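User: Teach me something about this protein's shape.
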Amino acid sequence: MPSRAPAASIDPGQAGAFVALCAGAIAMGISPVFVRFAAADIGPFASAFWRVALALPVLYAWMRIDEARAPGRPTRSFSRATVFAGLAFVGDLFFWHLAILNTTVANATFFATTAPIFVVLITWLVLRAHVERAIFAGLGLCLLGGFALIGQSMQVAPERVVGDLYGVATAFFFALYFLAVEKARRQGGSAARVTFELSLVTAAGLFLIAMAFEPKIIPTTREAILALLALGLISHAGGQGLLSVALGRLPAMFSSLVIFLEAVAAALFGWLILSEALTLVQAAGGALILAGIWIARPRRAKRA
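Assistant: First, the predicted structure itself:
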């Protein structure tokens, strides 16, 4: 029987999914800038709710257009995986904002970027799936790059331990989100329907959280309204939508590594828009992340 060995290139059918994944990571990476502009008017849990809620009309229109183009395609509404993905994203945003409130932004960001560790561990130890050595190598380089990007701003202190643990919880729930969306897509759910339905679940959960924790939910300033619109349309509808597209063709383990581009995009947008310093060490960290993604990329099978 002929054997197969991995080639050093991405399958042509996955190239579009890889582009969508990178674009989605960049769209999500700019979200801290929008949150910063909205923070003067409303609290973090309210901004998290509006991030998802304002994206719903666009996601619904995308779903209807997508299904109108393929009227005979079977649809599966609110599968277990889709609902679980929505709940996991509630946990992700909830603990992310708790981390921001209880530790430094640098600490919260670094611990949140450890999500690929949980994706690999759950896939390997819980789901009993094989993990390629290239994934471990790429994960190591991405973690080093993430630490180089953020590490010099991190502050280790006993009073921040709880906030740091919230950051780890953020990563855990984001890992569950990755795996759930991947399963929903592999079960036949379209990217448009999966993203819209999980967003409905997420918006409902975040609304309850905002009502419980925030004294003010409705934005009143022009700057906050525009920032929330951008957060919903770019970071959620664009970012999460493109991520759902990619997870239909690319494995969650590799896709989670590409999300390290969020840290690269956040540093670049912080430099360009907020005039935050960008050092040589941070630039080297970005290069390490790109190298890690390249090493862990899916290989095209060929005959040996």
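Now, about its shape. Confidence is low (pLDDT under 50) at residues 1-9. The two ends are 11 Å apart (CA to CA). If you'd like, I can walk through any region in more detail.
User: That's plenty for now, thanks!
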